[in-house]
Amino acid sequence: MKIIAFCGSARKGNTEYILNKVLTKADRMGHQTDLILLREKRIELCDGCFECDATNKCKIKDGMQDIYDRMERSDLVIFASPNYFDSYTGLMKNFIDRLRPYCTSGKMNGKKMVVISVGGGGPISTKRLNSNFDVVADKLGMILVGDLDFIAKGPNDVENDPENISKIENFIQGVLS
Questions:
Q1: 88 neighbors 133 (Cβ within 8 angstroms)
Q2: Bridge partners of 116?
Q3: pLDDT tens-digit profile of 114-123?
Q4: Which CATH number characterizes residue 28's domain?
């Protein structure tokens, strides 16, 4: 299985740590993995032109062209983001806005999707964030096969809790088995 993961964190911390653990486990299971740190990509803002509705392609030429190609070759897409105000980060939002061509092309239909969130807001906040990703899955025609949520406020909170490591291992084993 080809897995692509997108990290929506503006800094190296819990979200990236979790993704690295997930992808390492997937690699050990024989899957091909690809991690994209959105903070390292030049992704312009969607200008709302709606040309992609007619062409199934975005007219903006930037870091997304490489991402589109890699996404289309994947079987499972992981969206990972810190929880900001009960939603994903601005980096993730900007990236998701640029996925609009997939709303009409059908190229993501039936692909599996996993959501990973990290934040200090608690269960209600996490539920709200996950509902935003439910909309993404619906609009792109993807199948949401699981979500993995962590409570963390400090930059190494996930890494320093042994229960979290077990949670990551068990989750990815369940999703990829």
A1: yes
A2: 80, 148
A3: 999 988 777 7
A4: 3.40.50.360
Q: How many helices (H) and strands (E) does the chain have?
A: 7, 5
**14-28 and 162-176 helices, crossing angle to 10°:** 50
- Residue 18 identity (one-letter amino acid): I
- State which residues form the domain around 39: 2-176
Res 25 pLDDT > 80:
yes
Q: Cα–Cα distances in Å, from 75 out to 3, 93, 129?
A: 6, 22, 23
Instruction: Report the pLDDT averaged over residues 39-62.
Output: 93
pLDDT digits (tens, 9 = 90+) for 92-103: 999 999 999 999
Q: Nearest Cα to 116, choosing from 144, 96, 153, 155?
A: 144
- What pLDDT is stored for residue 9 in this prediction? 93
Please give the tally of structural domains in the chain: 1
Q: How far apart are CA 160 and CA 177, in angstroms?
A: 27
